[in-house]
Amino acid sequence: MLNDRYGNPASTKSQAAMNHYNEALDLIRLYRGDPIAALDAALAEDPDFGGAWAARAGLLVQQTDKAYAEETAKSLRAGAAANLNDREAKHLKAAQDWAEGRYGEGTARLARIAQENPRDLLALQYAHVGCFFLGLQSELRDWPLQAMRAFRQGEDGYSYIQGMAAFGFEECGDYARADIYGRQAVETDPRDGWAVHAVAHVNEMRGDPDAGILWLADNAQYWAPESGFAYHNWWHLALLYLDLGDTRAVLKLYDEQVRPNPDAQVVLEWIDASALLWRLHLEGVDVGDRFEKLAACWQRAGEDTIYAFNDLHAIMAFLGAGRAIDAERTLKAMRAAAADSGDNAYATRKVGLPLAEAFIAFEAGRYGEAVEKIAATRGIAQRFGGSHAQRDIISLTALHAALRGGFANTAEAFAAERLAHKPQSPWAGRLARQARELSAKARAA
Ligand SMILES: [Fe+2]
Q: In percent, how much of the chain has pLDDT > 70?
């Protein structure tokens, strides 16, 4: 039996399979290239390499897309029939948990693998992604911090753990340490899109678009090529331009980087696209036919209800495209999903569904209802996953609902909160001015 690049014993005796597997581990930690192809190359060398099947299944379930269900099932079946050591068997079980909707259990299992096998960076990263989807903020920070004990600074793998910890620090509001860890990781490997991303989040949360634009644009030559995650970092860059009020730059980034292929079947890309267009929609920017094109993609997944966070973003696209019937269709599917059991049912019931109703109310001009529903849900919205920056769309929608509905005090309250968090943000300043003007009008009336 051979060890992988971090020294974890694996169930293959084929050095050629291990070489491809190690290449896959490199691509996975960098969110780069085609790790499935590298795993398939490993499995072509040794079809009984259970660890490679488990890694494959784990990667597929993270796409939160039912389109991969068949390939996932194939990997799980083949993995169960292959050679597996104890650690690999746990990986496979975690992927099965995810495939069957037990997101919390699967994530906890991966985190336990990483605790017991602190050099299993794959388990750590898959757990990290799981924590992201579940909004487990302190775990995003603490599992990587635990694993750092097993790697020396500068050793292969160390900087990727730093990058994960950086994002965890950021989600926990420790921007100073997030910045230090993220920058150190990028210094070690400038291709590390996740670490680049952590620092971009720091700039987003601090409301510092100039620093954020400089950071992302300066490093793009390293993080962007061949990155399977680039669309998301470009999305962050677009948010920063939106903060500056440069909507032309935002639309250019949307067309050229976030959605360069309007037919691309990548759900995680659709989420960013919906989130960007909805923000522009709130700002009253004409986005042309982009919502229609995006809604056409969401069509096939609009009733999948495997992840409430996705469902809300499908609804944004349908509403933006004027397809109220499709938005209602997704809402109906969410109501059915909420009555089910399991992790997504809980997230749908507590967060996804009330927010979907709020966004539909917003589009229908029922601004009071939109504000009420968001105000009642916002405090636990992390339970349906995503980052603070992504979930900011909830507060933005509430603020715009208050502005449009003429609720001057509510608008001022949301705007004041925003400005306190982001005192340098031109966007926060613009919204605060709009809220003040509404108040002045209300007083004058
Ligand atoms: Fe992000």
A: 100
